[in-house]
Amino acid sequence: MKKLPTRKKGRLIIVAYRLPFKILKNEQGTSLFQNSGGLVSAVLSLAQGRENASFEFEDKIQWIGYTDNTPEELAGVTLENENFRAHPVFISQELNDNYYEGFCNDLIWPLFHYFPSLAKFETEFFEAYQEANLLFYETMKDIIQPDDVIWIHDYQLMMLPDLIRQSFPANKIGFFFHIPFPSFEIFRLLPTTWRDAIIDGMLGADVVGFHTNDYVEYFLKAVRMVIGQGNRMHYVNLNSRLVKVDAFPISIDYNKFNDAYDDEKVVKERKAARAPLKKKIIFSVDRLDYSKGLLNRLKGYERFLEQHDEWHEKVSFIMMVVPSRDQIEQYQNMKSEIDQTVGRISAKYGRIHWQPIIYQYRSMPFEELVGMYTASDVALITPVRDGMNLVCKEYVASRKDELGVLILSEMAGAAAELGEALIINPTDSQDIADAILKALEMPAKEQRKRMKAMRHRLREYDVFAWTNDFFTQMLMIEQEHDRLSHE
Ligand code: ADQ
Asked: Which spans are transmembrane here (predicted)?
């Protein structure tokens, strides 16, 4: 068997739109609150070094990201905790409006989630995007050292890999894309110069990673169409170097969710959710976003109630929605439509002692989230498009009892890995209604069989395996480049 390469030199530089902590300033001084999101825990696994890891990094992890604090506010403040040293990128409000709110969230997000009619193609958005990517580069150019490995994340920074490559040809650069990469018929809707700049920008990396093989295939097709370059077996052969393009399905910290099952606070939350209802619970949790299929989900549940009065008063659907971008008109409209649909269903089917839907618009602490995951009989996850979707993975990992049924949209990247879920088409209300019935009636033995298989897969390929896999590819391509340069 071919020996995997190892690397024990250089630092790791992460670049993502946001810094890994919130910076709060008050009279007592400055405090840093580390985020607990997926990327931060994934990167932490690299910081802490794992047994048998084929790489180790020197120093703390350097993290480049945007902050909404001003340079004056942060003057003299040490932006560092035990894991990370942060290098803030300062972007003016006006630029950020056109860059982040504009190009990223009013164009790329809707377009790449197959909502072209919501995409706004404004020239000033594109100019701001270029300018902001350049600001990230300017912030990092004095930080990069010869052996550093640079790992860039997501659709906010598609031009950064090439900007770095131009001045630092020898550094290893990875790029990971967290949202779907769309089929060429969608991608080609971008103006020609924009799509060329995006492809050139991303190909500045040595390894470009996506969640699924479909996204890899679509990207490689876009590369062929845009730069006319042939690619073979997941490699793009540029004149001077090779770029590896592959699927790395992001995962979660499996043990954290699995172990939380017995945590005292989680047990309390689980009881608190179950006791007052004394009914079967269907649960969902997402950010407020049109890609998450919240209205489709409600319509599917409504159809289920319409067709199955034998289940009335025996089931409640708890739908948690995390506030997101609700200053924007489109999101406000969507929220009003959700509010109205929930109101309509409750008014039609609700009874004094039975709420068919419990809908809350707020964030949840970890213990409450796992309490809900483990209290529910069914998780109903119906995005109309989702790069991966971590909620379904968290649900499965939390079910140490091996019970519960996952209903999952075929449009989530995760569907490729979780085939034992009840897979539905999110635009088909009848499909959702049928799956709800099947889930509620599923015998415990079958629940166990399906859960076991999914849990096994997630345990094997958790977020640490994900980072390890990505970095192994980075090392392999480094080895390949070294070999070619010595030939
Ligand atoms: P998101 O679109 O944010 O991520 P997702 O992958 O589902 O979507 O992750 C959401 C995270 O937020 C989960 O960890 C979940 O626990 C948490 N969360 C959701 N609702 C919450 C609530 N009410 N309270 C507290 N926490 C809540 C993007 C892409 C995804 C891709 C990820 C990672 O859109 O497709 O899976 O990045 O690459």
From this structure: none
Give the separation between CA 211 and CA 205, rounded to whole angstroms: 17
- Predicted ipTM of the assembly: 0.95
Which of 246, 332, 302 shows the shortest CA–CA distance to 436? 302
Which of 371, 426, 369 lies closest to 113, judged by CA? 426
**Which of 391, 392, 463 to mutate to test ligand 1, by most ligand atoms within 8 A of the CB atom?**
391
User: Cα–Cα distance between 284 and 318 in angstroms, integer?
Assistant: 7
Q: Is-contact 471 54, C-beta < 8 A?
A: yes
Is the CB of residue 303 below 6 angstroms from any atom belonging to ligand 1? no
Which residues have C-beta within 8 Å of that of residue 237, sequence separation ≥ 6? 229, 230, 231
β-pair type (149-153, 84-90): unpaired
Least confident interval from 20-29, 202-211, 313-322:
20-29
**pLDDT tens digits, one per residue of 79-130:** 998 889 999 999 999 999 999 999 999 999 999 999 999 999 999 999 999 9
CA distances from 476 to 4, 5, 328 (A): 8, 6, 44
